[in-house]
Amino acid sequence: MKPRHAGISAALGAALLCTAAPAWAQAVASEWRYLTFGVFAAIIGLTMYVTYLAAKRVKTTADFYAAGGGVSGLQNGWAIAGDYLSAASFLGIAGLISLYGYDGFMYSVGWLVAYITVLLVIAEPCRNIGKYTMGDILAFRNNPKTVKGFMAVSTITVSTFYLTAQMVGGGVLVKTLIGIDYEYSVIAVGVLMLAYVIFGGMVATTWVQIIKAILLVAASLVMVFLVWSQYGFAGPAYFQQVISDPKIQARVATLIGDAARNMTPEQLGQRFLEPGLYLKNPIDQISLGMALVLGTAGMPHILMRFFTVPTAKQARISVIWAMAIIGGFYVLTLFLGTGAAMLVGPNSIIAADRGGNMAAPLLAQFLGGGPNSMLGNLMLSFVAAVAFATIVAVVAGLVLASASAMSHDIWVGIVRGEHATDEEERRAARICTLIVGALAIAIGILAQGQNVAHLVALAFAVAASANLPVVLLTLYWKRCNTGGVVAGLVVGTLTAIGLVLVSPNMTYPLDVRATQEKAVATQTAAIDKLRADAAAATDPAVRAKAEQGAAAAEKARATAQAQLKTLGDSRTSIVGLEKPLIQLRNPGLISIPIGFLAVLIGSLLYRDRRAEEMWDELYVRSNTGIGRAAAAAH
Amino acid sequence: MATLNWSAIDSDPRFRELHDRKTRFLWGLMAFSIVYYFLLPIGAGYFPELYHVKVWGPINVGLVFALSQFIVAWLIAFVYARRASGFDDMAEAIARDVAKGGRS
Known about the structure:
The structure holds two protein chains of two kinds. Chain A is mostly helical.
């Protein structure tokens, strides 16, 4: 996917902190850190208070898993947005737009369109059929123990991929933003999330997501308003400003290289609003689009949100609100991204973080008056705190989904054969939350420095290739049965993971070595030339510049050499390949059809009388809500 | 609840009508939205010149098309919400009869 965690540049805050930078720099200078801690404390305090109130309301298992079905459509809409708008959307997409223009914006579209699938074919039937987990939906007409077991494993797989990306991204982000160590950042995210989920269950998780979504949207609105005010609320003429901006023109010239030579500055600026600067391979784009559009509807933590509303109608209303909020937010990111490109400049954004994640925080700092102003740092702190709340809220949703699968599907459903008292199940759910949370912290710390960006795409690909086919066909195809569900989950998951393992996402030592050796050679040549220049220069300013350049080149060479050293003698990727077998980075295009096919074939080969006998009941219930409505009334 | 005769409800003409209307409407809308969405990356990948055509100052076809994706998604949600309340009424009528004494 995108180079979100492509690595925080070693020259981290060079552009941000002119003087008195500590051993390693962060976005907020130490003199303003009290602001950061103040804003963080305020937001964490608010969510903790909400958790305290929520904890008193969690009295039954239904409260813990599904907030007792008492969340309204509007509230759930905000909570879905809070669950979905991860730091990747907020910081990542604004960053992509600030660095690559049009392609970053095009990238954001799929994330909204995904909700059409959720709205039309998934939300309402799931609300009518399911209870607490995706396993419940499948267990309705299939062999409950079998499908719950497989679905729980798939839920935990998808959530773990997504969770790892969130924990690693969150740790890096908090470190970059406020400068506490990576390990402590990860532990802080994990402990806070555990506090919400263990004490407040779904009630607290829902409210944390609502609060975070409101803060996120409010912060974005204020920033876009301030960006527009810089350009006199020019309407469509705003884009004239974008293309006339020299910083953007220079950025495009760097991106397209030689092709820029015959272009006027105006044409270079216009190029920023045209496709092709970031997304080079249309097939990969389509493949990712498929994973998003079909995968979102198979994400356990998203589906779980529909068990919190009282009726199918409220489920529908919640998706419509979520679409309004999420879509509106992505339209705002277009202006956050272009605003950051004009006001902060792509070079400063890259200097802070190579993937562009710092575009929105730096824009906030600029709009408040710059790195040396109190308001600027207050705004930066606020955006940082919102980003932190974002990570915690998303992680809370993911952990709750995994813990429910473990406690409700595996422990109660399989081990105890559905015989557990309400209190026992609630205790199991809390223990499972603790286990999953501890694992998330451990994985986050162990995966430090790993490139985990492709794990988000992989999570969506598995959800689209395994979870969605089995849920969709269970709900809409009479012949679907246990055999198909098991085949679909196993084949879909393994195909998606297998394709990623042989894809260009993995590290291929031969390639890396060639690139780094070339880099070492280039930098060595550059160092020699700059040294010679410095020796020959008579003007001290010219000499200083050449020496600076040589020092920078030496640093780059050292980085490349260090990379070569870590490679050692290895020649193959972790699955023993010298080069990728397929060129596709996102497996969806192949794995989604295979997942559907596996459900079809598995169902046709397997005979399951119960699945067919239950079809009428499932279909009537999913379309009318009969049964579930009565159950909710008790 | 377990004693409800589900296949009787399933073959109830009103339920069949609900099913037919809903199926046609939903999958039609679904197919339209998927086609409309994938035209965006396909167009950007294979017909980039088209996206370069300017329509209003520096605003080009590509930008308008990307923005239209948002409008179309919201319109689909709006259209669905309006039609769905009709489905709700039909489902409610069936559920009411079942509750009244639909045990058979």
